[in-house]
Amino acid sequence: MDEKIVNILLDLLNESKITNQKFDSIDKRFESLDKRLEKLEKHAIKTNAAIGELRISVMRLADELLRVHEIDNRLRKVENKVFNIAS
């Protein structure tokens, strides 16, 4: 009877060791995933900042294009008057 209990306890000990090894493995994977997630978060912050800068640049470019368009229209009117071009 005592031998059966000892064998059962030994089996439980072995299973416990295997379970602990699996937990250690899972813990290492979580640590690795956590590091990767931190890198992705930092990259996302930098990407969002760059997108914001690009958005502002595009808005400035659009303003400049409007300005160039207005100047072109004014210049065309002057050319028409100078060269007597009928509109």
List its traits.
rod-shaped
Summarize the structure.
The chain is mainly α and 87 residues long. The protein is built from 1 helix and no strands.
Structure notes:
The chain has 87 residues and is mainly α. The chain is built from one helix and no strands. The mean pLDDT is 94.
Summarize the helices and strands and which ones pair or pack.
Elements: H1 2-82
The shape, in one word, is rod-shaped
Give a short account of the largest sheet: none
Percent helix, as a range, is over 70%
Uncertain regions spanning at least 5 consecutive residues = none
- Mean pLDDT, rounded to whole units? 94
Number of strands: 0
The ordered H/E elements are: H
Q: Strand fraction band?
A: under 5%
The number of distinct helices, counting runs of at least 4 residues, comes to 1
Distance between the termini: 114 Å
> Any idea what the radius of gyration is?
37 Å
The assigned structural class equals mainly alpha
